[in-house]
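Hi again,

Forgot to attach this to my earlier email, sorry! This is the prediction with flavin-adenine dinucleotide bound. I've pasted everything inline since the attachment limit keeps bouncing my files.
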Amino acid sequence: MITELPHATLLDRTIQWMYNKDGARHLQLVVSASRSLTEMPRADVIALALKELGEFFPVVKDAKLQRAHVVKEVRATYSAVPGLEDKRPLQKTEIANLFLAGDWTKTGWPATMEGAVRSGYLAAEKVMDGFGSRQRFLLPDVA
Ligand SMILES: Cc1cc2nc3c(=O)[nH]c(=O)nc-3n(C[C@H](O)[C@H](O)[C@H](O)COP(=O)(O)OP(=O)(O)OC[C@H]3O[C@@H](n4cnc5c(N)ncnc54)[C@H](O)[C@@H]3O)c2cc1C
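Structure tokens for the complex follow:
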């Protein structure tokens, strides 16, 4: 058992998040904007993860790694670079009865679960507009 914590943030490291699965027999580590790892060989990524995890949970140094899997999702979300907002499409399109939802649409939020939910609310509002019903679903923005 590495830890009983359900999850942890590894501050000031390459590895950012630890999620404890299956009673700490399976740890899931997440790195967002992981550009420094894109070209890094699988074995080096695993070695780095073990090193950094061991700095927070020393028991890792004595643990025997049974299996590791590295997943690189380099196009999973867009990078929130300056000028991008103008390129994000609205939920209502030029085509009647075609509406868009997704974190990549124009929500005012970055590519997050919150942004995705807001896109769904906005799309639903546009659908209702089409029925002549000005229902509003979007919740107030975070102050
Ligand atoms: C590794 C990682 C970590 C993340 N961590 C966080 C986090 O901590 N907090 C946070 O807020 N956000 C996080 N995100 C971002 C968040 O997951 C996304 O912003 C969010 O899931 C986007 O939701 P969505 O509904 O727009 O798209 P998705 O969740 O991608 O949903 C789209 C769905 O459409 C399906 N689909 C695609 N094409 C077709 C097709 N042709 N036919 C049928 N179905 C199709 C896909 O299978 C998928 O299920 C993370 C993303 C990744 C990749």
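Strands lie at 7-9, 17-21, 26-30. Residues 30, 73, 76-77, 102-103, 111-114, 116 surround flavin-adenine dinucleotide (CB under 6 Å).

That should be everything now.

G.
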